[in-house]
Amino acid sequence: MAGEDLIEVKFRLFDGTDIGPSKYDPTTTVASLKETILARWPQGKEIAPRTINDVKLINAGKILENNQTIAESRTPVCELPGGVITMHVVVRPPMLDKNNEKQLAKAQKTNRCACTIL
């Protein structure tokens, strides 16, 4: 594998910080990129993904599927030769289980304010 064939990618997180840039083989899948993001996720962030399914990667306005490779997801019109590709990282918020949903709904109902004008 020649060094010229590698694609340089950085990941922009929701708060504007970056992971990378790092060089990847064009045959690298989006799923393995997501695993890299999980491994290199900065400590101390309030929102952190737990699995690769909690992460969405966006490149040139398109959400990338896990089975795609970097080569398949590239848009040559938007990229400069030898430039760094910036992929945006979106983290899915944690899902509430049924008990939490019921407690949240009950709390919203009991915390209502009622005003009466006489």
From TrEMBL:
Cross-referenced InterPro entries: MUB, Ubiquitin-like_dom, Ubiquitin-like_domsf, UBL3-like, UBL3-like_ubiquitin_dom
Main location as per UniProt: membrane
PROSITE patterns: UBIQUITIN_2
Coiled-coil residue windows: none
Membrane topology annotation: Lipid-anchor
Subcellular location: Cell membrane
Entry keywords, A to Z: Cell membrane, Lipoprotein, Membrane, Methylation, Prenylation
Cellular component GO terms held in the UniProt record: plasma membrane
Limits of the Ubiquitin-like domain: 7-72
Function in brief: May serve as docking site to facilitate the association of other proteins to the plasma membrane.
Protein name: Membrane-anchored ubiquitin-fold protein
Organism expressing this protein natively: Musa balbisiana
